[in-house]
Amino acid sequence: MEFSEHIKTANVEDVVLRRPFHPPMQGTLCVTGHHLLFSNRDGDSSRLVLLLLRNIDAIEKRPSVSSGTITLKCKDLCVLQLDIPGMEECLNIARSIEYLSSLDIVSDMYPFFYRPLKLSLQDQWGLSSPEQNYAQMEELQDRWRLSHVNKDYSVCPSYPPAVIVPHSIDDETLVKVAKFRQGGRFPVLCYYHRKNGMVIMRSSQPLTGANRKRCREDELLLQAVIDGSGLGYIIDTRSNQQAQQARMTGGGFESKSSYSCWKRLHRQLERGKVLQESLIKLVEACGDHSHSVDRWLSKLENSKWLSHVHTALATAGLLAECVERDGHSVLVHGSEGTDATLLVSSLAQLILDPNTRTLDGFLGLLEREWLLAGHPFQHRCAHSAYSHARLRLEAPVFVLLLDCVWQLARQFPLAMGFSEPLLLRLAREVYASDYGTFLCNSDQERCAAGVKERTHCLFQFLLKPSEREHYSNPLYEPTELAIWPSIQPQSLQLWRGLFLRWTQHAVHLEKAQEELRNLVIECRGAS
Amino acid sequence: MEHILTPKVEEVKLLDRYTAKKPAIGTLYLTATHLIFVETSCNTRKETWMLHHLIATVEKLPLTAMGCPLHISCKNFHVAHFVISSERDCQNVHQSLVRLSQPVEELYAFLYNPKQDEDERRNGWGFIDSAMDFKRMGLPNEFWEMTDLNKNYELCSTYHSELGIPKTASKGTVFGSAKFRSRGRIPTLSYYHKESNAAICRCSQPLSGLSARCVEDEEMLQAISRANPKSTFMYVVDTRPKLNAMANRAAGKGYENEDNYSNICFQFVGIENIHVMRNSLQKLLEVCAMKSPTMSDYLTGLENSGWLRHIKAVMDAGVFLAKAVAEDKASVLVHCSDGWDRTAQVCSLASILLDPFYRTIKGLMVLIEKEWISMGHKFTQRCGHVDGDPKEVSPVFTQFIECLWNLMEQYPCGFEYNEKYLLEIHNHVYSCQFGNFIGNCQREREEMRHLISFSLVYFFQTFEIVFNLIEYQLHYLFDRFWCGMYNHFDKGMQPKQSILDHLLTITQKKAEGEKKMTDLQILAVMDGVLADQGSPTGTPPEQTSLSPVSVSHTAENAKPLMNGAAVEEAEIELVPTAGSEKMEPVAIEN
């Protein structure tokens, strides 16, 4: 496709750029297929501001007779303003931005054009495969096997080609179970707890429907999971009522009579539109300078964002408690099993498993539990908090995960091998990126679009020595213990680093981080 | 002690305030000064100490199946829920605590004996001197002088004996002005900003009523204004809400009329009075006491308490003062009603914003001494040290400390001290363990010395004096509840790992490592392996008072050591000791 036909005006001189914490800057604005390029030559020094068009969430234009102002609201929550001389130029540029920032075709997106010198397309894409993951966990291999039943994505389009299931369940059974679960997402293993052999499984809802259909194979599979240990828990991320209602539309839940060894617990996690609207309200409240403290607190409350953080952590804590303290295996699902389910299962793993708390381990967890497990990133992150477009499938589930991880890291500042800048970087990259990692909705789509051959992998890049230092936590002291977060509201805080990043100056906090890093390095060097 | 009816109760349960965890079981002891709970249910000996004097309320609840509940809440926000199996024992403990927590004369400070001799005790009192601080600001100079007009406390009974006043103010002006100010609290110097010649002065409200005037008072303000010749005007800031100030006019008090005073710019900043603040804290503590609130309950409760709004109001007023002095280069006169609560808060905050000295451990002590103790903040009444009028109790000092904490959250490297130091000071203000905060005016200073000797613990490692004026963000959004203060004793609620403790451990290890290296070096010199360089290298840091300067020095001094060949050996020897703290001099003496 030719981007140039959408660029009527490619260059404008004497544009003024206004952005948070910087004095206004005058220079030349240039529109390319994927970027806004602003350059300013002030005497000898020249400065360049590069903005990925994909990052633009909403654009507001105010043309007047001889000039115009464009306000750009970005998905990373930054708000910029451009004063452009010439009304026609202003309108042309606005039109180009509108079109080019919302490209639909994956292969037109910037990651397919991004070719930095220091990276090669021959480099490994992704950190690990299901096969490698399985091979590393020797302890579980006598009871669990790696099934390739989904190798051509025909059994479950949103699963990876290989998944871990109980040894005693053959592929034929899996095919039947898949037909009984929404989207074919049959129960698979996502975490094995070495200390007691208990596991966390995840799936989508069973399709019991209004007439309480049963599926022998499904019951068999779950029976095989607890095999001998007596009792398992099912954490349903919907309220009991929601689960009941789901039967009307063909979904449902595991009834006591059919799954006698499983105990169901309902914890209502919000998803979809509710979550997106929560983010919109929060960002609106954060961007409003006019209010007094009281209105600010009530707006914060009204957004419900912290309530969602609270519920997610509480549910993850419950899940981890079932596994570690009570010694039971747990199955997690909601309805589709691609959002709240993944949120809860990954947080529980962070609580329980020290291996997921290193920089490599955390990125590995995201790859396993979000990318390969089929979180529909492209749908969920099409727009962020500023967009005026009608909401479709957007939901900031991944941002909520990052927020919860930030809360964990705040309560256990020594336990995580990675630092806040990593979480902030991920929160940005998931919406607009040079890398192909968060493109598409599933592994299948990624393969079909050639993402793994024709784009670079963000995770591989973040682990390069040059980046690694910036994203690791200088205070990291590995601990084998579970890290139980406090979920009293007093213990949770608004993630200022993300939500107030562009309105509250954090330069002193960043400096403190830097000082801290230096101090620790100095001390380590001395002892 | 005749007040202790039952000195020891066994099989007492201590419940967790928030979660339904299994209660701790142990023995409760009552001593002359403390309530001590020793857990017997766990292997390690765990003790909970509560100073009788800190106890705010003791409540005995109706008998339950578990036993008789006894709820104790302290002024430092320590809350304990005990269950005592025998109602009689509970009754006795309750009665004893009620008596012990309300001393009439025997305050703990007079019982406390930290094993010091008389000389040490006296030195402690001489350690902090607010007159020295005025000297540090450059006083006396051509505009300001220190006067002893108040040496017999005749001018103003609640002021310090030495006061900073403008040179041009005559004795008549001062005494005249005192008559026109509530309780004789005349305008006096709080902070002098050398760089701009502007000053912050404080006083109480004028007795202006509906129309009264006082020439001497007008002259006094003129004199303050003239002491800053570069500025054509001065600010007069009334920290009260306008409505409150107007109401005072009817009672013969009030505020300055801009028409009567030449070149003043009058401003209200709207900080509520001690009663509003007391109620607000009460509401905040009710939010804290909710057992398992939803996030919405909590945020709504936090908002309804108004607490953070009040903190912001105090903060904003402090910022206004600092900006007036540093940016407008204009002097400011601040007052509220009596000028010992809100005025103390905002003057101290402005000083901290303006002057890095007050961001050091010693500086904060000086500031508290200068703005609170010697200017007559009524610690005894505000903290409820002895049983008195409950309407006089108010968390004025707590708010000041919380404002400071908020500043530290924004500028983690801007302060030498850390959160622990704030908590410790706050704790001692209420504990009465030291004499500083007893009484209403300048008297004693022992705690200051006590804190200094433990300063290592309070020292924020990465402190550096970088900014003269803290550029405070006016739009800063307050949503942070100070868990470290209000839930300090609820262990599970704060971050489970402390960055600060970790930093202290590693820097201490580093200091030990360096000391070891120096010892090795001395040994090497003695053995003739290493040439004596003559210069003092790698002086071990002082263990008692580690100042920021000494840290950076030792770090620098240690570096050249690394280059010497003999030291490389030393380094090799040191390697195995890294990480293990136990390798003490034994290894070196070999």
TrEMBL record, chain A:
Pfam families: Myotub-related, PH-GRAM_MTMR6-like. Belongs to the protein-tyrosine phosphatase family. Non-receptor class myotubularin subfamily. One of its GO terms (biological process) is negative regulation of autophagy. GO terms for molecular function: protein phosphatase binding. Transmembrane segments: none annotated. PROSITE patterns: PPASE_MYOTUBULARIN (PS51339). Coiled coil: none annotated. InterPro entries: Myotubularin, Myotubularin-like_Pase_dom, PH-GRAM_MTMR6-9, PH-like_dom_sf, Prot-tyrosine_phosphatase-like. GO terms for cellular component: cytoplasm. It comes from the Eukaryota. Residues 124-499 form the Myotubularin phosphatase domain. This is Myotubularin phosphatase domain-containing protein. It comes from Oncorhynchus tshawytscha.
From TrEMBL, chain B:
Keywords: Hydrolase. PROSITE patterns: PPASE_MYOTUBULARIN, TYR_PHOSPHATASE_1. GO terms for biological process: phosphatidylinositol dephosphorylation. SUPFAM superfamilies: (Phosphotyrosine protein) phosphatases II, PH domain-like. Substrate binds at N273, I274, C336, S337, D338, G339, W340, D341, R342. Residues 534-553 have a biased composition (Polar residues). The active site is at C336 (phosphocysteine intermediate). One of its GO terms (cellular component) is cytoplasm. Residues 533-553 are annotated as: Disordered. GO terms for molecular function: phosphatidylinositol-3,5-bisphosphate phosphatase activity; phosphatidylinositol-3-phosphate phosphatase activity. Residues 124-553 form the Myotubularin phosphatase domain. InterPro entries: Myotubularin, Myotubularin-like_Pase_dom, PH-GRAM_MTMR6-9, PH-like_dom_sf, Prot-tyrosine_phosphatase-like, Tyr_Pase_AS. Belongs to the protein-tyrosine phosphatase family. Non-receptor class myotubularin subfamily. This is Myotubularin phosphatase domain-containing protein. It comes from Oncorhynchus tshawytscha (Chinook salmon).
